[in-house]
Amino acid sequence: MRQLEIVPDPSDAWALLRAAAGEAARDEPRLASQLNSVILSHADLAGALSFQIARKLGDGELGTMTVREVCLDAFAADPDIVRAAEADLQAVAERDPAIKTLLQPFLYFKGYQALQAHRVAHWLWGQGRQVLAFHFQSRVSELFQLDIHPAARLGSGLFLDHGTGIVIGETAVVGDEVSMLHGVTLGGTGAERGDRHPKIGKGVLLGAGAKVLGNITVGDYAKVASGSVVLKPVPPGCTVAGVPARLVNCPTDATPARTMDHTLADMVHDFVI
Questions:
Q1: Collapsed DSSP state (helix, strand, coil) of residue 169
Q2: Positive or negative: CA dihedral 204, 177, 82, 20
Q3: Residue 128 C-alpha from the chain's centroid
Q4: Domain assignments of the chain as residue spans, ordered by start
Q5: What are the backbone dihedrals phi and psi of residue 137, each rounded to the nearest 5 degrees, phi first?
Q6: Residues in CB range of 4: below 8 A, 6 or more apart
Q7: 164 or 263: which leads in pLDDT
Q8: pTM of the full predicted structure?
Q9: Contacts with 23 (C-beta within 8 Å, 6 or more apart), sequence order
């Protein structure tokens, strides 16, 4: 009798990841051992994610087993970290037309991997373990060319496309469902102290090379065009472009971070925000 094929629930990222790993192991036997150790040998996403972060960040100073123990401690203490990691996987699947399966972001996309390592570093920061948090941040910067301060607060369902050159400062806040491309900076405007970095609302799209500087707010579902320099608050649902950034249109696309629509209106207003 022909065995029925079990199709994973599209909303179950772990089941989809395991299914993709099993298929890849059959199709590419040379990677079967890696796929088994990283994904197939684990009972849940937390186990696989801790192993993946550890094998990337572990080095001669902090071994892989130690890194994995730290990750598992973080996941046990705050299950929302794993839930956010799953939402991030689903975000990549929804917004990146280049991926074939969830294997690509989980194993190979540095934006996704750096984001998950940051979540552990942020948990360490909240526990007062700042030295270890900075060690994680330093390793992420060395390996992935992203620099995210451990204290920065990042939401879930995020998509860091390509990832290279992203810089996020200490007091920055990024809402849920945000998409940002390579070269984005959420920074300060100088040597000021205290709360000095941007607050990015829900569902915002930050184009490649966009710079948002200072303790300003980019409202929910706004869009910042590639290469723009934003120095003043952006109203919710609006698009800004240019150096310095100017309003292009309000409202813009209702969900720009999901559609990844980088197009601009034909007319740009003649005032600076």
A1: coil
A2: negative
A3: 23
A4: 8-146, 152-273
A5: -60, -40
A6: none
A7: 164
A8: 0.90
A9: 101
